[in-house]
Amino acid sequence: MHLSVIIVNYNVKYFLEQCLCSVARARTLLLAAGREMEVIVVDNCSSDGSIPYLQPRFPFVRFLDSSENLGFGKANNLAWRQAAGDYILFLNPDTILPEDCLLQCLDYLEQQPAAGALGIRMIDGSGHYLPESKRGFPSPWVSFCKMSGLTTLFPTSKIFAGYYMGHLDPRVSQEVAILAGAFMLLKKQLLEQTGGFDERFFMYAEDIDLSYRIRQAGFRNYYFAGSTIIHFKGESTRKDARYIKLFYEAMILFVRKHFRGVASWWYVRLLELAIRLKAAASKTKPVAPADPFVGAAVAVQGENNVALARFLETKGSRGVTAGNPADVIIYSEGPALSYRSIIAAVEKRGQQYPPFITGQGSSSLAGSHSKDNQGYSMPLAEV
């Protein structure tokens, strides 16, 4: 077996449906190239009926049903230890891949000397580049610049934007320090050597920790810009008080694990201060987004199938005319519209209007208005 794709799911069945539709397309291309591939989904005790909904739709996927929420790292470890692939791809459920993504990434990684892991260029659901696609080591100075806003003020500075390695061109494939766990490709042998994810990290920072340990073991991490994926970032990262607490506590764990002495003490104090300040600033309860399709002018690119047409009819959506421009656009994947074309279109349009994606034969759609808001997914019919 050449590749095992591992996805951890927790109550995001419609996002995962769209992800698996794109993975299925990439799998077809990989198999045609003579490379076997398996897909393993670990369901972390979802309450939304994920497995009974998805299992009949994707017979090529092996579902592991956990009786408890294991967290991100532990669930991934459970899966890769059962995987048959020489290479392992850790993939978030709120992602969309172009058809040739897996083939390109494997080819690139296999050509690199002392290869460790590979990450990829990511955009959010509105088409904007996600700077966390490539990151530097979070030293005390780098973290201070990030938390103080210096990174935002000087996004391309080598001195102040080290957290996202902002001085490096995001259109160029190159070696980087830290990769995002949303898409991380590496050899299973390397996971066996490093022990995989540290299970003390329940959520957040486990990708930073694994990336760092891969480099400590003498290997290199690479950022691949030859392909682009969509990561509906908001779905798995809500910028509320709970997120702030989980993220910074995970970073404190990372610091205590890898730093010593005075540097560690000051770094922890800085993170504790960030928790208090950011938690105070996030007291406002996020407002649930309104249904974007109700009464809206909707443009459909690709196949406007029966299920999609009925869905728009129930929402009272209007067609697009010369005097009635689009409020929302839906990209319907199929013979006339590939995932590669969809991703390119989303990136090109930016925030012109909210984009949504539905895979051929799927019963849902997914979209996201920005990297800081919760992603948006819904069924095309009541299920």
UniProtKB/TrEMBL annotation:
CDD domains: GT_2_like_c. Residues 359-383 are annotated as: Disordered. Pfam families: Glycos_transf_2. Residues 4-166 form the Glycosyltransferase 2-like domain. It comes from the Bacteria. This is Glycosyltransferase family 2 protein.
